[in-house]
Amino acid sequence: MPPASTRPTTPLDDDDYPAYTMGRAADMLGTTPAFLRALGEHRLITPLRSEGGHRRYSRYQLRIAARARELVDAGTAVEAACRIIILEDQLEEAQRINEELRAAHDPAQ
């Protein structure tokens, strides 16, 4: 758990809080709800659902969707854009783990 000083004080301070409706998220990204649904179909982002079953997006998910939109706007197919972002995330995680392992096994650190 993060230290108290870095924990969100309200849900709106939390990057993972599902604060945005599909319509609002699409407006913020300058895209359509269909684009957001496509990102979900390709398993790039999985929005939470409200009690009424409506999709709700977090700021973190909107940043991922914005990255996908950049790739699609540059001519990449939606499916390929989703795969690229997933692979970028996996690479970043693998690099982080490698650094942690190196630090744990390097007596100079």
TrEMBL record:
PROSITE patterns xref list: HTH_MERR_2
One MF annotation (Gene Ontology) recorded for this entry: DNA binding
One family name in Pfam for this protein: MerR_1
Residues in the signal sequence: none
InterPro entries: DNA-bd_dom_put_sf (IPR009061), MerR-type_HTH_dom (IPR000551)
Domain annotation HTH merR-type: ranges: 19-87
Gene Ontology biological-process entries: regulation of DNA-templated transcription
Name by which UniProt lists this protein: MerR family transcriptional regulator
The species this protein was found in: Streptomyces pactum
